[in-house]
Write a structure and sequence with these properties.
Structural class: alpha/beta
Order of helices and strands: EHHEEEEHEE
Organism: Sphingorhabdus wooponensis
CATH superfamily of the largest domain: Transcription elongation factor, GreA/GreB, C-terminal domain
Distance between the termini: 38 Å
Domain Transcription elongation factor GreA/GreB N-terminal: 6-76
Strand order of the largest sheet: 5-4-3-7-6
Keywords: DNA-binding, Elongation factor, Protein biosynthesis, Transcription, Transcription regulation
Pfam families: GreA_GreB, GreA_GreB_N
CATH topology of the largest domain: Chitinase A, domain 3
Largest sheet: 5 strands, mixed
CATH class of the largest domain: Alpha Beta
Number of domains: 2
Family: Belongs to the GreA/GreB family. GreB subfamily.
Helix content: 25-40%
CATH architecture of the largest domain: Roll
Radius of gyration: 22 Å
Shape: elongated
Number of helices: 3
């Protein structure tokens, strides 16, 4: 079974790397120091600092493992390098309107950098999948948990290169 790649913007990858480095270089050593100090205080079975520190260390190690897997599977795609800017692909900033003429602007980003409250929709989200490849003026139906909803593509933009 082939590994699944995960598209991500350069900024999204930088955020993953920054989080990994923060955990690995700052947070984990601080917790290791606390656990080491607490272990020297005698009975570990009733030592709250030791028990909590070990739990915190396991949580950090688990997150480091998850971040490492995400970074290995990441496929960094720069939306400013998109050749066909007339269609919706990864990194597109899209304005859509529903049948009530309510406009919504979204940016299609990697699943690991999605933030729906800020209009950043993951590449594999239902709305993103429905919009892929569409052009301005196309009407796409999105199957939502509340039922199907139609969206018309009003505009498509991509970030400019440096």
């Amino acid at each position: 079974m082939a590994e699944r790649t995960n598209p991500i913007t350069p900024a999204g990858f930088a955020a993953l790397r920054e989080r990994y480095e923060q955990l690995f270089a700052v947070d984990r050593p601080a917790v290791v120091e606390i656990v080491h100090w607490a272990a020297g205080n005698g009975d570990r079975s009733e030592n709250g600092d030791y028990i909590y520190g070990r739990q915190k260390l396991r949580a950090i190690d688990r997150e480091l493992g998850q971040l490492s897997k995400k970074m290995k599977a990441a496929q960094i795609l720069d939306p400013s390098q998109q050749g066909d800017r007339s269609r919706i692909f990864f990194g597109a900033c899209v304005t859509i309107a529903d049948v009530d003429d309510v406009h919504r602007t979204i940016t299609i980003v990697g699943d690991d950098e999605a933030d729906a409250s800020n209009g950043r929709i993951g590449w594999n989200a239902p709305l993103s999948r429905a919009l892929r490849g569409a052009r301005v003026g196309d009407v796409k139906t999105v199957n939502l948990p509340t039922g199907p909803k139609e969206w018309e593509i009003i505009s498509i933009d991509y970030p400019l290169g440096e």
